[in-house]
Write a structure and sequence with these properties.
Layout: E1 2-6, E2 25-32, E3 38-43, H1 44-48
Antiparallel strand pairs: 1-2, 2-3
């Protein structure tokens, strides 16, 4: 299943520091067994070295990228 957690990465000195109160979100996934117990989980930042302050997201450099906005999942999932 898709999962997410708050990252404690520091925004100071990055293009994101003007986003008052913002924190990075460390998206990932979890694997469940037939009893719905987590058997494995991985996160983009923690496990795969993704650094949102350095590495652009899926819309980096395009007109869709809006500073201080979360553009990762909203285009793909109904908010309701």
């Amino acid at each position: 299943m898709i999962t997410t957690r708050q990252s404690m990465d520091e925004l100071t000195g990055t293009d994101w520091e003007d986003c008052d109160g913002s924190l990075f979100i460390d998206d990932g996934y979890a694997v469940l067994d037939d009893a719905f117990e987590i058997t494995d989980q991985r996160f983009l930042m923690t496990d795969y070295g993704y650094d949102p302050a350095v590495d652009g997201g899926p819309h980096a450099g395009t007109r869709l990228q809006v500073g201080c906005a979360n553009n990762t999942w909203p285009p793909y999932f109904d908010p309701y």
